[in-house]
Amino acid sequence: MSPDAPTTPRARARAAFRADLLAAARARIAAEGAAQLSLRALARDLGVASSAVYRYVESRDALLTLLIVEAYDEVADACERALAHAAARSATPGQTWLAVGRALRSWAVEHRHSYELIYGTPVPGYAAPRDTIAHATRVWAALATPLVDAHARGELGPSPADGRSDGLVAPLAIELARSLPGAGGPATAQAGSSEQVAALVVRSCTLFEALLGAVAAELFGHLTNVAADPARAFDITLASVAAGVGLRVELEG
């Protein structure tokens, strides 16, 4: 049994209802969109009084936050597994970036509506609380790790970000970047000046933005009648953008 598993009948009942509530919410979002999510409608779906739902979540926004945290953690788990598998086979930083990007794409294809919830159009009237940040940055950390490793190994080529990033990156992003583990330790801590660390952050943001764009283009039909092989087109996109930030990706075939 998992150490986090509920151990009492009451706790197990609460966990089961919470799982049913989240499943019903995901189904509603898939059918109608997140903006239309209603706790009263979910209560009807579950066959309970609306007061029962409010005992678990205080508002629609609180429920959205649970779903957003769940989505961030799911995609982060997928990306971190890809990192671990790449490390186990001594993959190059470029191969690792491709593996992590593929993991995010696979998760998004399987969980399209969860992808839309965290990376799509914002829900009108909803503002994510600060406690979602840690969950969101897990994804960014996984995507940035191959770049940090390449820097630590001295394998990172030049980039337009060099010499142009001072004052561009928020202090919180600099702090997060310095905490990322690289090959043999916190690689960005040895990057030198804050400007050099900022240049790494700008490169990682370039990779992140291109990855999300590539996934969205496929999910939302923008590659229809354009890419005969979406998976291969995705790999080439990731390799191309990586080359632009000095990270070499060798594609097979």
Overview of the structural elements:
This protein is mainly alpha-helical and 253 residues long. The protein folds into two domains: 1-58, Orthogonal Bundle (Arc Repressor Mutant, subunit A), CATH 1.10.10; 69-244, Tetracycline Repressor, domain 2 (Orthogonal Bundle), CATH 1.10.357. 64% of the residues lie in helices and 0% in strands. It is built from ten helices and no strands. The chain has helices spanning 9-32, 39-46, 50-54, 60-88, 93-110, 112-119, 133-152, 171-179, 194-219, 230-244. The N and C termini lie far apart (45 Å). Residues 183-190 have low confidence and may be disordered. Residues 38-57 bind DNA. GO terms for molecular function: DNA binding. Residues 15-75 form the HTH tetR-type domain.
Main attributes of the structure:
mainly alpha, Arc Repressor Mutant, subunit A, 253 residues, 0% strand, Tetracycline Repressor, domain 2, DNA-binding, transcription, 2 domains
